[in-house]
Design goal:
This protein is globular. By secondary structure, the protein is α/β, with parallel strands linked by helices. Helices cover 36% and strands 18% of the residues. The longest helix has 22 residues, at 188-209. Bound molecules: manganese (II) ion. Manganese (II) ion binds at residues 216, 219, 255, 258, 284, 326.
Length: 372
């Protein structure tokens, strides 16, 4: 298991790379989509939040795909700082919205995704995280209900009252000039059909390019959000995604917090099951209290997930990918994002050190696995 840090687009600077190393990371996962672009309710020192029904921001330039030259330059800058670029997280809605929507530009947008995958392969970036979702990460509220009054994110009930407006996909605005109106609802089967077509189109290209595709589950994991179906909103639905197109390249960006919010199954079992199958490309780690549609994100050392048990299972199943902190509540100081990340990384590194200590490991493993 390796420990990394996820960096948003505006954080792709030497200062943030140095921070990652100082906090004990060997790897970084980068976001090239600028979620915060013109977002009115989306402060940059937090995870992208938006409002319950307010999108994050405006998507990127549909004509500008990430080039081999810029990807190679990014990789070099990260390596010059002493880190490894483990993955790119998320596609820009501007590049592939008609794959999600099954719209008229789908053929072109599938080619966009293939080009991005080939470019990543050429630049030596081994994993692409993605989220096959129409409504995206939405429907959440930010409150000061975290420990010590920390600002944190969660749900206070379902979010189906306001449908997705036209011109918005995956909680970002891809067409600011879209006609008024809302996106018609589709069925769960139709969404699975779109995912299957997507995987069948791009997995062969990804295999050739040696880039793993890693699917994030639906966050928040409700059956529907804003009137649109969700794909992976119970732990077993990840298996359906894997079985659609069986390949080591068809893999998971397993989000522990999201799975813990699901109403069925058990997050510890899910981590055990999918890591034993070698299907996890990388892991988002965060803790949580409650289940959808009523939950709150918490600090790593509280909440309903037994993090020691999760990390022990990953270690026992010889998980060789990267674990990154997902989101954290905002700590009261001048650098709330940094403080939350450093706190989470310290916790992860302590457990990792314990598991890897030759004298400690057998006792810890026995103790934590016998707990259940
Ligand atoms: Mn996540």
């Amino acid at each position: 298991m390796k420990v990394g840090l996820g960096l948003y687009r505006h954080m792709l600077t030497r200062e943030y790379y140095d921070f990652a190393r100082q906090a004990g990371c060997t790897h970084v996962v980068v976001h090239l989509v600028d979620y915060f672009n013109q977002g009115s309710s989306n402060p940059r020192h937090n995870q992208p939040t938006g409002g319950k029904y307010q999108p994050w921001g405006v998507a990127g330039d549909p004509e500008k795909l990430w080039t081999v030259a810029e990807l190679k330059k990014l990789r070099k800058e990260i390596e010059d700082a002493g880190l490894v670029l483990a993955a790119i997280e998320n596609l820009d809605p501007a590049h592939w919205h008609d794959v999600l929507l099954d719209g008229p530009r789908r053929p072109r947008h599938i080619e966009n995704v293939k080009t991005i995958i080939r470019n990543m392969g050429e630049a030596g970036i081994p994993v692409l995280g993605y989220n096959f979702s129409l409504a995206g990460v939405c429907g959440r509220v930010t409150t000061s209900s975290g420990r010590g009054g920390a600002l944190t994110v969660g749900m206070d009930g379902p979010a189906d009252e306001q449908p997705v407006p036209k011109g918005v996909i995956w909680n970002m605005i891809y067409d600011p000039n879209a006609a008024p109106g809302t996106l018609p609802s589709i069925s769960h089967n139709e969404l699975w059909r779109r995912l299957q077509r997507f995987l069948e189109d791009v997995i062969p290209v990804a295999e050739q390019a040696d880039v793993r595709l890693a699917a994030h589950p639906d966050d928040p994991p409700m059956p529907t959000m804003r009137g649109q179906p969700r794909l992976v909103y119970q732990p077993h639905m990840y298996q359906r995604l894997l079985d659609l197109v069986p390949s080591p390249t068809n893999a998971l960006e397993l989000c522990v917090g999201t799975i813990a919010e699901m109403t069925e199954g058990d997050v510890h079992e899910a981590v055990d099951r999918y890591s034993a199958q070698r299907k996890i490309a990388y892991i988002h780690l965060r803790n949580v209290v409650g289940k959808v549609p009523h939950y709150r994100e918490t600090f790593i050392d509280e909440g309903q997930v037994d993090m020691v048990r999760i990390l022990t299972m990953l270690n026992r199943n010889h998980f060789e990918g990267v674990v990154i902190p997902d989101h954290t509540p905002q700590m009261s100081c001048a650098a709330p994002w940094h403080a939350g990340m450093a706190h989470t990384l310290g916790f992860i590194l302590a457990v990792k050190a314990m598991l890897e200590s030759p004298k400690m490991a057998p006792d810890v493993v026995t103790e934590t696995t016998s707990r259940g």
